[in-house]
Amino acid sequence: MKGADVDEGILGLFREGEGFVSGEELSRHLGVSRTAVWKHMKGLRAQGYHIEAVPAKGYRLVAAPDRLTPRQIMAGLPARRIGGSVICLKETESTNAVAFKLAEEGGVEGTVVIADAQSAGKGRLGRVWLSPPGVNLYCSVILRPPISPVAACQLTFLSVVAVARAVEACTTVTPQIKWPNDILVSGKKVAGLLNEMNAETEKVNFVVLGIGVNLNMRADQFGTTLRHPATSLFEAGGVEVNRVQFARTLLAELDRLYEVFLKEGEAPIRSEWLERSRICGRGVKVSCGEREFSGVVEGLDAFGALLVRLSDGKLETVLSGDVSLIN
To answer: Which residues of the chain, if any, have pLDDT below 50?
Structure first.
């Protein structure tokens, strides 16, 4: 058994049980000597794992390092379709660019690319997404859905709902959805999504779901050049978020929702999006390039366009632009 496999075996046994695991049990299960177990414990501690050792009881995992590694993230993931392969990078220009290239080269569906930092993170409409190291989650997922190109925008529902669920599961913060693909906390952006597609006339070759979530950024890291106010889950809730736990939770939710999407279509996910956004019946101001107008939101169509009723009774279908609530 290779060293990395022994490490993973030890961590797997820690996760499966509660309390202490004896050196004898570890040795027997992994097929290595007690001395080898001791050496691997020493190595895991050097990697940042807090492992307690008590005579006659054995070893117990007290805490794991908050480093984004494939081993940490993939452990125990359902990975029906998403998360079977996780690539973690120390830094890259953009996880979307890396995932897009991998997909062009035949990367399998469900492959996840995560970076500790991005030097050229991308937001919607060509905007910059600030991506400092060690504090947030920047990830991209390759999907190959059997849908037409016009339906690919429906996957935005999936990403947004998955992030909202993960925020609720990992924090005490209440997320709000802002059309088309932002997550806000107290009116400030905490997460953004950018989907990119490669398609033919009637066939989607692949879609890359890009997700950036501000987990532990401090206020002084946001700078002064942002178009819209931003925050982090730490700033909003006052508690640091475990990045590994959040990544695992997000990928598990994406996996569940993608399964629903493939079996039942976008309708149930769109329904949850609408329920979470609470935008129906609200007055909004819409900016589309140089055009601006106001109206009342009546819902979303099947492809994610915002349906806004104007004061003259006309129903406007908004495909892109900036939307702000006015009441």
So the answer is: 125
